[in-house]
Amino acid sequence: MRSNPINLSPGHNLSPASEVCVRVSLVGKYFPRAAAGGSSFSVIRRRLGKTEEADRTEPFKALDKISFDVDMGEMVGLVGHNGAGKTTLLKVIAGLYKPTHGEVFVRGRLGLLSGLGVGMVTDLSVRDNIYLYASICRISRTRVSELFTEILEWSELADFVQEPFRNLSAGMKTRLAFAIAIHNEAEVLLIDEALSAGDSSFKQKCNLYFQSLREGPATALVSTHDMAFVEEFCNKTLWLHHGKLVAYGPTTQVLPEFLRNE
Amino acid sequence: MGVKATETRRSSGLSSSDWNIAYQLTLTQMKLKDQSSFFGFLWSFLHPLLLLALLYVFFSARFSDQIEHYVIYLMFGLVLYTHFSNCTSMGMRALRSTRELTTDAVFPKELLVFSTLIANSLELFLSIAICIAIALATDISITPAIFWLPIVIFAELLLVTWVSLLLATIFPFAWDIDHIYNVFLRVLFFITPIFYNISFIGDGLARRIAELNPLSWVVTTMRNLVIDGQGPAIGELTAFLLINAGLVYITLIIFRHFESRFAEMM
Description:
- The structure holds two protein chains of two kinds.
- Chain A is an alpha/beta fold.
- Helices cover 36% and strands 24% of the residues of chain A.
- Chain A has helices at residues 40-48, 52-56, 86-94, 126-136, 141-154, 170-181, 200-215, 227-233, 251-261; strands at residues 20-31, 60-71, 75-79, 101-106, 110-114, 188-192, 219-223, 236-241, 244-250.
- A six-stranded mixed beta sheet of chain A has the order 5-6-7-3-8-9, with helices on both faces.
- The two termini of chain A are 33 Å apart.
- The radius of gyration of chain B is 20 Å and the shape is globular.
- Chain B has ten helices and no strands.
- Chain B has one domain (2-265).
- Helices cover 73% and strands 0% of the residues of chain B.
- The interface between A and B is large, with 47 and 44 residues.
């Protein structure tokens, strides 16, 4: 989670009283088709003069002229086929990717859940991983200590606290990571396919969390293939197709259109 | 339409939750190091110890009558070189070795480099303490010059920090810098007065290179403090600290400038 909020630039046209939390303005993200990195020789060669390969190929447009606003407290579902640009869009908003064109403004503390358990270490114990992952989710040590029992109970792992993390099943790992992640204090939460795994009891717990998130003041953008989730929790839907914004608006209008064209 | 790409804006300082991440990452690296072998943490000392034995066997006959306390002399050289070598190599690879955190987590990525440096530098403090204990056990008398030691250690830390930040910035863009740097480290071993004295190499190009090498200054100054009981020249020390602090600042700016490219380059 980003502790230092990205400040709105002084030149933008949002008034301080504006409800807009995320503004994506004409954002494009292009990736070169040739490998970006490489040996120092190939990097120098690319810098000194364009290679024939670079001349021949157009860059891959992962996102192309995307513009939309998200107001405070809204939950937006990002829908689209694989490769539509959902993850790239979330990473551009998170600041992990620099946009090729356009501008992104985020107001508030930002958090990204791109896959659950990012950074957890299999060779450490469950206890160590709780503290480690909580720090990545921007939860203080004191707060984790207070929440420690609750996290273990929520994830049903109270008997495994000293076990190496690698001994847990995939479902247990997801439960533990989710039990920690829900305590983050982000004001703008970006979630990328983080909740696709888990049994029905886990999904029920997740639903309760999203219920509370929807009713709370936090703003969320959720990339998902779960249309039932979008229908139930997202008041707005953003439909991407091959890097282009097809539609953005109330879920009741956009989702049926997306499902018809799927 | 004249639209400009936006840089990710964040304040230049680190928040308390950033430091919490740095603390947890450092702790994780230390725990992993401890678990990585049967001997755990002690394993880190085996490599310099073996090198020390080897260098002593091969060079003591040639140098021990010209260099007083040759074993202690070798120990300080090896400890500082090993620290420089380990920190900068691991610092360079920090973004790659924690790839998931580089690509999917939002926090200042210099913390990945810093935590690697801190985890490796704790060994340095322990190694220097061992060197001083051995020096005391021999007939070396410690003088008040020893109080300069924390400042010289700080100088070494500044040096490894800017070199690591620079290498970590280059590494995602040119992956073979790893191999090139390994060759450089071998060269550095010979252009640093680890097993010889800088006065033995004449006044030619070799001496110029050795004197320009900042690690030579740290090694020589630390030996002077402990073995000879001489404090550093204040002007030299100040210049070294200012130049290296400036380089830390510059390399940090460069690192942050390229930070928004790291995730996609991985």
